[in-house]
Amino acid sequence: MNAKQPVRSSGGITGLPPRYCSDPTIFDLEQKHLFPSQWFPIGYESDIAGNGEHFSFQLLGLDGFCVRDDHDQLHCFRNVCRHRGTQLCPVNSSGLGTVPEGEPCSDNPTKSSIVCDYHGWKYGLDGRLIAAPHMDNTPGFNRADFSLYPIRCAKWQGIIFAQVGGGQDNPTDSLTEILHPLNRIVEPRGLDQFQRKKTISYVIQANWKLLFQNFNECYHCPSVHPQLTPLTDYRDAENEFDTGPILGGPMRIRDDADSVTRDGDYCGPIPDSLVGEELKKAHYYTVSPGFFLSLFPDYVMVHRLSPLAFNQTKIDCDFLFLPASGLSLPTGATAWEFWDQTNLQDWEMCERVQRGISQGNFSPSPYSPLESLLVKFDQHYRQQIARFE
Amino acid sequence: MNAKQPVRSSGGITGLPPRYCSDPTIFDLEQKHLFPSQWFPIGYESDIAGNGEHFSFQLLGLDGFCVRDDHDQLHCFRNVCRHRGTQLCPVNSSGLGTVPEGEPCSDNPTKSSIVCDYHGWKYGLDGRLIAAPHMDNTPGFNRADFSLYPIRCAKWQGIIFAQVGGGQDNPTDSLTEILHPLNRIVEPRGLDQFQRKKTISYVIQANWKLLFQNFNECYHCPSVHPQLTPLTDYRDAENEFDTGPILGGPMRIRDDADSVTRDGDYCGPIPDSLVGEELKKAHYYTVSPGFFLSLFPDYVMVHRLSPLAFNQTKIDCDFLFLPASGLSLPTGATAWEFWDQTNLQDWEMCERVQRGISQGNFSPSPYSPLESLLVKFDQHYRQQIARFE
Amino acid sequence: MNAKQPVRSSGGITGLPPRYCSDPTIFDLEQKHLFPSQWFPIGYESDIAGNGEHFSFQLLGLDGFCVRDDHDQLHCFRNVCRHRGTQLCPVNSSGLGTVPEGEPCSDNPTKSSIVCDYHGWKYGLDGRLIAAPHMDNTPGFNRADFSLYPIRCAKWQGIIFAQVGGGQDNPTDSLTEILHPLNRIVEPRGLDQFQRKKTISYVIQANWKLLFQNFNECYHCPSVHPQLTPLTDYRDAENEFDTGPILGGPMRIRDDADSVTRDGDYCGPIPDSLVGEELKKAHYYTVSPGFFLSLFPDYVMVHRLSPLAFNQTKIDCDFLFLPASGLSLPTGATAWEFWDQTNLQDWEMCERVQRGISQGNFSPSPYSPLESLLVKFDQHYRQQIARFE
Q1: Looking at beta carbons, which residues of chain A come within 8 Å of C134?
Q2: Chains in touch with A (≥3 Cβ pairs < 8 A)
Q3: Minimum Cα–Cα distance from A146: chain B residue
Q4: Of B11, B15, B369, the CB nearest to A134
């Protein structure tokens, strides 16, 4: 198709040995050594546009929340009071469900401080303990020692990412470095101007790597996604990024469709900067270990992955749009209805693979040329995990 | 407030390290070494007032039942037939729900013997095997060797306690010794004349020690229990017992209330012996590891705790009243409605602490002076567990 | 009763130590060493009478399916595609429920090949990979290397058995050897002509051995199965086979009943060969570790056991009948209604034993003479497991 063509051979390399997805001890290694130092998307700057607004999140077993302070600084904190350890905001542990349209974040009333419901300890939006009733006569107690525990966070193009393993020092450098290669694609279309309109959440009984593998090939599209066939040709994928952690590239939208939606029509405003060939492209990228970014002419789709167990992953699928004139967002229903159907088809396949490879010995076959990105995904992953095995 | 005032400093001592409530291996130690030799309340003498009446119970993973024999002796036995191990009374494993008013014990029809449903082996109320069909020709079989397995039990002031670790020898001494300090408070009001009218059961996703800590301070009352503020002042608590295993003391009922009920009015008969200042007191005691005793002018509340897991505890909350003239018990609804609301508020906080301290590193702050009893609870607990760590 | 009488003493031998049914590590041993080399019934030849028909099954944690090829050969394969490990037929993991009458197998449309839903790989009915799209340019890929994984299977009297531990070599010898002693009983009545009309499935919270023990004695019948008393006398059981793995024998049907059904009447056609005394007999056999075979004049009942955990077993209970004239099967409702009631009574007892023996120390009593087959079952089992302890 282009200069990238050579990578479209899999070289006869076989798939990742099943134990990487079916052995709980591998997941323990990932949790201990791999995930804590990696960035996971948790939400959007536009979700907390006002000072004092916040949203809570669950990431790798940790409850946190993200708040915009009075100086427009974003902070992420662990959702725990420094007194006796109470959760500051009660969190639904299932975390499953769809966010209703028009309510991108369910718990962000504006606040000027954070008060623990148990004994009334009060924190500023920057995390400092500013009041602790009845503690004045406690020997050796110093409020300054009991700020909220920070969670390292950073932002890129309006998307907020968090890293559970680190503190607040030097937070943004590595995220922007990692995602820098995508800037030339997302900046011209003004990704940071897009806002979340809809989120659909899923808990999938499959390892996170099976979901990455599934997203990185369209070999399955004819069998699994008949509704995609009229919109894009499964063989027409360009491997623009073919080394980790970013993988993926554009697919051409067929001549008789405008976008990847239920009816093939646009469902939102199109950035003025999108012209010519770029108007006919859908871009699909995955960034290990928790971020899928899909760009269409009229909307953006983000999959946020949160590994829950060796055989379980939560995915929040967000749909972002440019505000139309008058600042209102389009409904975008033809986009998220299309992808909810498509996502569910994919999740079923990933769950069937998880179950298949979890039973006794299984030796995967060599990859086909249409699975060349999976070779790259596997290589990048094994390089990362090898240090800890 | 009185001579006990000095203890109302916490000395700047910090809370119990979180692992004692969040580490399953600590719970295993407690189950193996701590709980088996300790007394847990299981019911009331008045629940089985007639000969042959019984109630079943579940304690620390063991199914048991308690029966009054024809000589008015109480016995507790494991709920298991000596033939092949069948449960003698089928037990609902969830054990959750409220006992309907007027039915203090759901399964106590009078019986003169206990018959296994599987093969018809029959035991006397004292546990002896009195009939075993078709066993006459079994070489070496002697009925006397196959009595029901006893569970050590004892009674105090009408309340029946059990101990899963021991046999039947020397059963009552230590229980009465442990609870002896409470006698001067409960005997004048005739606790042994009170009868159970209502039980509300809860399964709480929190360690049993968090529930003890919560019950031993009213620092949280202004934030968590607004309905309590008009009845008692959260600062007005006297630490009458401040060494383990008994902790607690009285709080003064405000002038414009009579009792701690939904409307502040009495809801049951008042013992004749209660006069003067004593009429204006609510007493709250905890006895590690399974017993909370709360005394009000017109009723008694008992919390029976049964630790189920490091992060799960069952609580049965009983409401006891003096029979009015004509021997009928009052409905007492304003008492248990008040406490069901209050209990649920507490359980939510304990569950939020459990979740907060179970996530990564957490260092508790020093205790406030209003948490001075928690210092004592923690000390008593650590002294007990230290031998086994 | 007859020459077999001597075995009707239990010799004062005590029951299997409880840990064999309550210790998960014993179950791990069974799963690793015992079950893989043993035959478990999975279905019937008549379920897949036509070429290309198949049924799926779950056995010892493995998903499989059984198919009849175009040359009338039966094959069992693991339910997994050789490409990336996808389950070929989606399987309901609970597997619980009753098969509607007249639909002995829910998923057996005729097929000429097996196609994976994910990427379209296609297998012949003999398991060979016959098409793999887009794999032509994969270096070193040879279709012949990627046949479906076979599961060893064999048939006896129309019943199909599988063995998860072995390959396809030498499949039938040992099954027919094991079951050979039953031939003289089942062949005259033409067991292989019987067809499955109804299946009722159960998941029982009890160890598989408790279910075998329960099935091998009628000592419990007076207490547990009052509906059985008018049909057979619980003492009237002949221990025809009293060494493992086959145990059991006939019981006489009472004079005023014809069969073991809800009303005591016949509910299906009677084989012409059944005459005289044989017309008045019910035969009950167990074959360790997964097969109960019960023969009545007018129908056959098969219990297929699948151990799921140390304290959990799945049982599929099948009811088989001879086709009447015109080839239609009788409804047989009076048979399966009777046994559904009887099964549930047994399962409750087995679950109560499981719970009873799982709590602390329990020493079983000696067996009664009516439990003499349990002595034999325990001996055979301990002989098998001893090599691996």
Answers
A1: 219, 368-370
A2: B, C
A3: B365
A4: B369
Peptide bond into A289 cis (omega under 30): yes
What is the average pLDDT across A185-202?
Answer: 96
For residues A187-212, average pLDDT: 96
Contacts of A61 (CB under 8 A, 6+ apart): A31, B359
Q: Residue A137 is nearest to which of B220, B355, B369, comparing CB atoms?
A: B369
- Give the number of other CB atoms < 10 A from CB of residue B166: 16
Pick C349's closest partner by Cβ from B61, B118, B137.
B118
DSSP classification of residue B361: -
pLDDT value at position C328? 78
pLDDT at B89 (0 to 100):
82
pLDDT, residue C89, reads 82
Q: Which amino acid is at B170?
A: N
Q: Which residues of A316-346 are buried (b: 16+ CB within 10 A; e: fewer)?
A: bbbbbbbbeeeeebbebebbbbbbbebbebb
Q: Do residues C374 and C367 lie in contact, with contact meaning Cβ atoms separated by under 8 Å?
A: yes
Neighbour order of strands in the sheet with B54-59:
B40-44, B159-163, B150-156, B74-78, B62-68, B54-59
Q: Which residues pair with B284 in a beta bridge?
A: B249, B294
Contacts of A368 in chain C (CB under 8 A): 119, 132-135, 138
pLDDT band at A239 (very low <50, low <70, confident <90, very high): confident
Which SS3 state, helix, strand or coil, does residue C52 take? coil
Name the domain count of chain A. 1
ipTM of the complex: 0.91
DSSP secondary structure letter of residue C68: E
Determine, for residues C81 and A356 on separate chains, whether the beta-carbon distance falls below 8 Å. yes
pTM, 2 dp: 0.91
Other C-beta atoms lying within 10 Å of the C-beta of residue C9: 16
Split at pLDDT 50, 70, 90, the class of B173 is low
pLDDT at B30: 96
At B274-306, the pLDDT tens digits run 999 999 999 999 999 999 999 999 999 999 999
Chains interfacing with C (3 or more CB pairs < 8 Å): A, B
Whole domain around residue A99: which residue ranges?
Answer: 5-386
Distance CA A58, CA A85 (A): 17
pLDDT per residue over C183-238, tens digit each?
999 999 999 999 999 999 999 999 999 999 999 999 999 999 999 999 999 998 88
Residue of C nearest to B91 (CA): C352
Give the CATH number, domain containing residue A332: 3.90.380.10
pLDDT tens digit sequence for A294-339: 999 999 999 999 999 999 999 999 999 999 876 678 889 999 999 9
pLDDT of A164 > 80? The answer is: yes
pLDDT tens digit sequence for C1-32? 333 444 467 888 999 999 999 999 999 999 99
Using an 8 Å CB-CB cutoff, list residues of chain C that contact chain B: 9-12, 15, 18, 213, 219-220, 222-224, 348-349, 352-353, 355-357, 359-360, 362, 364-370
Residue C367: closest CA among C19, C12, C20, C7: C12
Chain B residues whose CB is inside 8 A of the A133 CB are 219, 368
Nearest to C86 among A18, A349, A370 (CB): A349
B93: nearest CA partner in chain C: C355
Cα(B269)–Cα(B322) distance, integer angstroms: 6
Query: At which residue do the structure tokens 């606790």 appear?
Result: B191
Indicate yes or no: CB of B356 within 8 angstroms of CB of A135. no
- Written as six digits, the tokens of C312 are 């959990």
Size of interface B-C (CB pairs under 8 A): 87
Do the Cβ atoms of B364 and A83 come within 8 Å? Answer: yes
What sign for the dihedral angle of Cα B37, B39, B42, B44? positive
Report the residue from B222, B355, B365 with minimal CB separation from A82: B365
